[in-house]
Design brief:
Blueprint lengths: L11 H16 L4 H8 L3 H8 L6 H11 L4 H5 L7 H10 L4 H14 L6 H4 L2 E5 L6 H12 L3 E3 H9 L3 H8 L1 H18 L3 E4 L8 H10 L1 E6 L2 H10 L4 H5 L3 H16 L4 E4 L5 H16 L3
Parallel strand pairs: 1-3, 1-4, 2-3, 4-5
Helix pairs in contact: 1-16, 2-3, 9-17, 10-12, 11-12
């Protein structure tokens, strides 16, 4: 166990950087050990980084950026520094609230013709959320009622790759998996004019793929408490999460915390905690009623 430095000894920038690393790790559902191994750094070094006591050399870059009166991202040269228009757009959106940013994103997407109307997107209904939310069960019932095919995107990924998802990660790594996931999603959209789609919980980790999903599908976030997510997975006969990791519940809470802000971008959400399957399904049909009317 790495002992964190007292708060008074931590630089605010490093604390914020550590929180960002933890959030990104949780969103991708990765353990600290897995990230340390992939980054080829020691577990202690990564723990220090996440606790806000990381290598202070980055503070030199921060000081230089401050001296140049520019954000650190501009000094490092991300995509938003590539043209004056990017810089002006970023300046316009800076310090806006989350609601204002969402309004601006949707307005830009509609202006650019990137997002069809809700009724058109309802031809493709996508269920999102963590494993154990009921995506498969509710999705199959919904597809049957609507007379549409039901597709598990995970199965499509395995079909394209020719191997299981654990094998994809083990042989090719997470980046390859995300490429297969995007390819699978695009193929499903091209193949089916109408479909009900159950998506993997980690799809929101790739913002480009998640953006594509939001643009082409009417999305529903199926929510549940972390305890109910875990209980449903175990009830399905999969005890591996708890057996392999004593901190599984804590990790699950962190994953849900890291992804919730993205799941919340769905067109609608439905809390399935403590409800029977029939009650939950009726609530789903009621939530979809307005957009399905007339289709």
């Amino acid at each position: 166990m790495v002992e964190a430095a007292p708060p008074s000894e931590r630089h605010p920038f490093l604390v914020a950087l550590g929180e960002r690393v933890r959030m990104l790790r949780a969103r991708r559902g990765l353990t600290r050990r897995a990230v340390a191994q992939a980054a080829q750094v020691s577990l202690r070094h990564l723990a220090n980084l996440e606790s806000g006591t990381g290598n202070a050399s980055i503070l030199i870059l921060l000081q230089v950026a401050n001296a140049l009166q520019c954000p650190l991202s501009e000094l490092l040269g991300d995509v938003t520094t590539s043209s004056p228009e990017w810089l002006l757009i970023r300046e316009l959106l800076q310090h806006r609230s989350e609601a204002e940013l969402q309004q601006a994103r949707l307005a830009m997407a509609h202006s650019l013709g990137e997002i069809p109307q809700a009724g058109e997107r309802a031809n493709h209904i996508a269920l999102i959320g963590l494993r154990g939310a009921g995506k498969s069960t509710l999705g199959q019932t919904l597809a049957q009622d609507l007379g549409r095919p039901f597709v598990e995107l995970s199965a499509e990924v395995e079909r394209i790759a020719g191997c299981s998802i654990p094998e994809i990660h083990g042989l090719y790594g997470p980046m390859a998996y995300r490429r297969y996931e995007r390819q699978a999603l695009e193929e499903v959209m091209a193949r089916h004019s109408h479909v009900v789609l159950a998506t993997p919980g980690g799809l929101v980790s790739d913002t480009a793929t998640f953006q594509y999903l939001l643009q082409h599908c009417y999305t529903v976030w199926l929510q549940a408490s972390p305890e109910e997510h875990m209980a449903r997975v175990v009830a399905q006969g999969d005890t591996r999460p708890m057996a392999a990791n004593p901190q599984a519940m804590e990790d699950l809470r962190h994953i849900l915390q890291g992804r919730s802000a993205f799941y919340a971008k769905a067109d609608t959400s439905l809390d399935t905690s403590g409800q029977s399957e029939s009650v939950t399904y009726q609530a789903l049909r009621d939530a979809l009623g307005p957009v399905l009317k007339g289709l």
